[in-house]
Amino acid sequence: MDERLRTGIELFNNREFFHCHEVLEEAWTPERGPRREFLQALIHVAVGFYHSQRGNSAGACGQLRKGLRKLGVYLPEYESVDTVRLYRETGAMLERIEGGAAVPEYPRIFIRGK
User: Is 113 within a domain?
Assistant: First the structure.
């Protein structure tokens, strides 16, 4: 796992979703191929949770749907990221947000083997 992805995951897990998206975009921009879509999925999820933190439910739902569509291709694991867990937990948060419920806490990104 490269340093940008590792840093992005740390920021995500610290609920610093805006900074997470910035770091992951640095990794995403030069990429080509399947890894590019994987990084973009994580960016969409981070931006979705950022919108949620700021009370923008419509923006959150749109970004989370995009993230889930792209992340679904990378199940159950990609680059040691437990994508199936992130997919499931993000889907549950999307349902909460769509239903107008409060988000008590956001999912974390887990690394398999740790």
Answer: no
* Distance in angstroms (rounded) separating the CA atoms of residues 106 and 111: 16
The string of pLDDT tens digits covering residues 85-112 is 999 999 999 999 999 998 889 999 999 8
What lies within 8 Å, CB to CB, of 99 at 6+ separation is none
**Torsion angle of the four alpha carbons 78, 8, 39, 67, in this order, in degrees rounded to the nearest 10:** 90
Count of other CB atoms within 10 angstroms of residue 1: 10
Token output for 67: 């993230």
Examine residue 39 and state whether it is found in any structural domain, yes or no. yes
Residue 79 — φ and ψ, nearest 5°?
Answer: 50, 40
Residue 42, domain extent: 3-98
The alpha-helical segments, DSSP class H, found in the chain are: 3-13, 17-28, 34-53, 57-71, 83-98
